[in-house]
Amino acid sequence: MKKIKTGYILVAAIALLLTLLYISNSFQESKNQELMNNGIETTAVISKIAVNNYKANELEGRFIENYVITFNFMVDEQSYQSVRTIEKKDYKKYFDRVVKAKDTIRILYDASNPKNNKIKALHLSVN
């Protein structure tokens, strides 16, 4: 019986990992596209905003800053809470000014599963 070299196992493991990452990304993109095409739009109230700031790489020294937004919304008299992260570089795609707790935002959700939701880009209203 031939012995499998460690190099081949490593290459196969990396190929498997890349394939799984591609499949995962495709699944997430299809969920986002489904929400954009068939999602129901509603208003949500921001309950909390936190800033998450961390160093991306010890050698590079670059920091990544993003906003962790917690919001609540109602569907058929049932309350849902979601947490979404928006990177600082993408903030203006979603909001045209600084948002804070108690502001309202527009979201899209899946009618069959309201836990599948996202913040709708470029819409903001205030209470």
SSE layout:
Layout: H1 6-38, E1 40-55, E2 63-75, E3 78-87, H2 91-94, E4 104-110, E5 113-125
Antiparallel strand pairs: 1-2, 1-4, 2-3, 4-5
User: Mean of residue pLDDT?
Assistant: 86
What fraction of residues sit in β-strands?
over 45%
Q: Determine the N-to-C terminus distance.
A: 73 Å
Poorly predicted tracts of residues: 123-127
Spatial sequence of strands, sheet with the most strands: 3-2-1-4-5
Biggest sheet statistics: 5 strands, antiparallel
Bin the helical content. 25-40%
| SSE pattern, N- to C-terminal | HEEEHEE
Question: What structural category do the secondary elements indicate?
Answer: alpha+beta
Number of H- or I-type helical stretches: 2
Radius of gyration: 20 Å
Number of E-type strands: 5
Label the overall shape: extended
Protein name: DUF3592 domain-containing protein
Organism: Pseudotenacibaculum haliotis
Overview of this structure, please?
This is DUF3592 domain-containing protein. The chain contains 2 helices and 5 strands, in the order H-E-E-E-H-E-E. The chain starts with 5 loop residues before the first helix and ends with a strand. The chain has a 5-stranded antiparallel beta sheet with strand order 3-2-1-4-5. It is an alpha+beta fold and 127 residues long. Helices cover 29% and strands 46% of the residues. It has helices spanning 6-38, 91-94, and strands at residues 40-55, 63-75, 78-87, 104-110, 113-125. It is extended and about 65 Å long.
